[in-house]
Amino acid sequence: MNRRALALGALAVSGALALSACGSDETGGNGDGDGATTAANTSISCGDAKGQLQASGSSAQKNAIDAWVKQYTAACKDVQINYNPTGSGAGITAFTQGQTAFAGSDSALKPDEIEASKKICSGGQGIDLPMVGGPIAVGFNVPGVDTLVLDASTLAKIFDSKITNWNDEAIKKLNPDAKLPDLKIQAFHRSDESGTTDNFTKYLKAAAPGDWKYEPGKSWEAKGGQSAQGSSGLAQQVSQTSGAISYFELSYAKGGMKTVDIKTEAAEPVKATVENATAAIGAAKVVGTGKDLALELDYTPTTAGAYPIVLVTYEIVCDKGNKADTLPATKSFLNYIASEDGQGLLAKAGYAPMPDEIITKVRETISGLS
Q1: What integer pLDDT is reported at residue 162 of this predicted model?
Q2: Half-sphere exposure for 280 (CA within 13 Å, toward CB)
Q3: pLDDT, tens digit, for every residue of 253-267?
Q4: Structural domains in the chain?
Q5: 295 near 202, Cβ under 8 Å?
Q6: For labelling, which of 45, 151, 280, 336 has a CA lying 20 to 30 Å from the CA of 363?
Q7: Is the pTM of this model over 0.85?
């Protein structure tokens, strides 16, 4: 545990240094170095990248993608990247139908999706490259309440319509000093298939199995509640609805929105922060085989300061058989976002960079894409 804590501390420091060195006008990448041209004042390697790159999927990483695309296309002016945040499920479908060069997904590919990808990855298959991490924040809008502590059991009951009022005894017990109003809870979930929903329900199932009877998945299974499209839609509902609560990536909790502190097995409740998410992701295991780098997350951490509701967004790409006209741009862009500078932009955007041992494997895999 001490070695892990030291490693995570070193990671946080190196990430902060990368970010400060990056600056607002600096971009970077570790290009493949095969005679590739490098844009002035940057280390982004454009190489032979040109044309349009179509991608879609996870809305969780939309703000990270926007930051990356801004820097990358300023350096590589011959490339246009169009990322459509349709949700993880739709993104995988578009990828396996050959409509996009890569997809973003907050859940690793399932066996049937890998099989489907073989039809468009000539001689290869789709693989998972973990690229973006972060906490799934639970945002709330309760008048007069600035700090709110909830545990997995209480969250499960709220999102399963078993706890319906903010002055419920279970919530009072966790928040003895809060002035909880007699106000109906307005719980919002995703209307579209979502990796954020998959990871949120994996947390509920792992941490409160007695209270969450549904199988985790991209589609919302519980009864009741209200729905909205995308993470931005859920965040908007929380902002404008008194009594609302919902789940979305921390980067969507803007404008002073309050987020729940999660009670875990550790002594103190844990806040939704980039640093606390990185602490949890650092305990993940690589469970993919071959070039696939799918991770197994720990949703019930006991370490102090490890935020339990995290997700990792994967860029899904063919290991072999990528289309010749998009391969140079795909490798160039992925090389940049996996680089020290690319990962260095994440904390500023509300995301967690991948731990060093994981992102090193990602970089090696990208260099071998064909």
Answers
A1: 97
A2: 30
A3: 988 999 999 999 888
A4: 2-132+292-297+312-367 (3.40.190.10), 135-276 (3.40.190.10)
A5: no
A6: 280
A7: no
